[in-house]
Amino acid sequence: MDERYCRVTYIGHATVLIDMNGTRIITDPVLRDHLWHLRRRAPNPSARLLGQRAPDLVLLTHLHNDHTDLPSLRMLPDDIPIIAPAGSAGYLGRRLKHPILEIATGDRLTIGPLSITATPALHNGLSTPPRPNVSVLSYVIHGLITIYFAGDTDLFDGMADIGREHNPDVALLPVSGFGPYTGKGHLTARTAAKALRLLHPRVAIPIHWGTFSPAGPGWHRWSFLDDPPYAFLAHAAREAPETEVRILEPGQETILASSLAQAEQPPLHYAQKGRLPQPTA
User: Fold this and answer.
1) pLDDT digits 0-9 by tens, 102-130
2) Which of 190, 201, 121, 177 lies closest to 153, judged by CA?
């Protein structure tokens, strides 16, 4: 890909492919068709996307199963380094062959032409043994453009510090989960829009939605699985009208130039979905 552009591809849940400056990063990979009692709601784009080119780097925000899925990590070539929160290497190193690089809030790594800074998140990092309890991170990726990947977090005042220090061009923000309620420690469509007022990105892409549903009849049709990004778009229009929201369904991508002036593939809008903005939480 032309290195004057950055490609962001939403695989689903918190799994995003970022192609920038000739380097491919994958975040919190969940590449399987199922996870516990959850099933993918649409065809899995992972094999198609990763078959084109393997990632150069994996970013893990924390060790919860839906963000650190060991079977998915084993699907990636063993020589790909994994960046994970401090305290993760012992657990991951005994179960994976990949090189593990630990990182703590405030640390900054240089990976080829990119630099990656670990930033805080507001989310409970407690895990069930044998997984250790580690801090939950978010990341800022600096390259052609600056991308903030929130991972799994609630709204917190420190987002304003991230916005001031890093001035992100793009924010990848969770807006939902896989049930009707997200619970404490997670952004909703409404609070994710409020986060835009602290981060001041030029573009926001909602993630952590629309990928998995509980197994069983009827669940895959429930509106809470599809509505969050559109509710986020409506809330963002009021909270941060200067931020452009690009909605990607799993498997879709958007192209970003350093000027962020145009996307070669346009994002989905209400008109394409036959919807009207109806703000909900």
Assistant:
1) 999 999 999 989 999 999 999 988 788 89
2) 121
| Widest distance between CA atoms in the chain | 50
pLDDT digits (tens, 9 = 90+) for 152-200: 999 999 999 999 999 999 999 999 866 666 767 689 999 999 999 999 9
Instruction: Dig out the tokens for 104 from the structure.
Output: 């703590």
Q: Determine contact, residues 12/40, Cβ cutoff 8 Å.
A: yes
Domain 5-273 CATH superfamily: Ribonuclease Z/Hydroxyacylglutathione hydrolase-like (3.60.15.10)
Interacting residues of 145 by C-beta distance below 8 A, sequence separation 6+: 6, 20, 169, 170, 256, 258, 260
Residue type for position 204? A
Cβ contacts of residue 183 below 8 Å, gap of 6+? 177
- Collapse the DSSP code of 242 into the 3-class scheme (helix H, G, I; strand E, B; otherwise coil) and give the result: coil
**What radius of gyration do the chain's Cα atoms show?**
17
Q: What CA–CA distance (Å, rounded) separates 59 from 15?
A: 10
Cα distance between residue 109 and residue 20, in whole Å: 16
Q: What predicted TM-score, i.e. pTM, was given to this entire model?
A: 0.89
Please state the separation of Cα 38 from the chain's center in Å. Answer: 19
User: pLDDT of 199-209, one tens digit each?
Assistant: 999 999 999 99
92: helix, strand or coil: helix
Question: Could you give the CA distance from residue 201 to residue 239 in angstroms, rounded to a whole number?
Answer: 12
| Residue 172, phi then psi, degrees to nearest 5 | -100, 105
Phi, psi of 279 (to 5 degrees): -60, 130
